[in-house]
Amino acid sequence: MLDNLSARLASIVKQLRGEARLTEANIQDALREVRMALLEADVALPVVRDFIAQVRGRALGQEVLGSLTPGQALVG
Questions:
Q1: What pTM was estimated for this model as a whole?
Q2: Secondary structure letter of residue 64 according to DSSP
Q3: What is the spatial distance between Cα 24 and Cα 4, in angstroms, rounded to a whole number?
Q4: What was the pLDDT predicted at 46?
Q5: pLDDT for 44-76, tens place per residue?
């Protein structure tokens, strides 16, 4: 189960590569996938909601540093 979750999260981060800025649209798509991966891994719904809200708040509009990909900026 943990291997599947790790693989899904890595795949989501890869999808964000190549973006110059984290926008509402690409954040929304990535967080939808994260939400599904966490729920499929049996993470409690309140924990998933709180996590998604915190990540969205920190990531929205964040500029991607030259040495980071958007995926790394979302995770970091």
A1: 0.71
A2: P
A3: 26
A4: 97
A5: 999 999 999 998 888 776 655 555 565 666 665
Q: Give CA–CA dist 46/61, Å, rounded.
A: 25
| Residues 4, 41 contacting (CB under 8 angstroms) | yes
Would you give the DSSP letter of residue 60?
A: T
Domain count, the chain: 1
What six digits make up the tokens of 33?
A: 């996938």
Q: Which tokens sit at 12?
A: 């989501």
User: pLDDT of 7-33, one tens digit each?
Assistant: 998 888 887 776 667 778 888 988 999
Distance between CA atoms of 7 and 54, rounded to whole angstroms?
Answer: 22
Residue 39 maps to which CATH number? 1.20.120.140
The pLDDT confidence band at residue 2, using thresholds 50, 70 and 90, is confident
Please report where in the chains the tokens 């800025």 appear, as a residue. 21
Q: Which domain holds residue 10?
A: 2-75
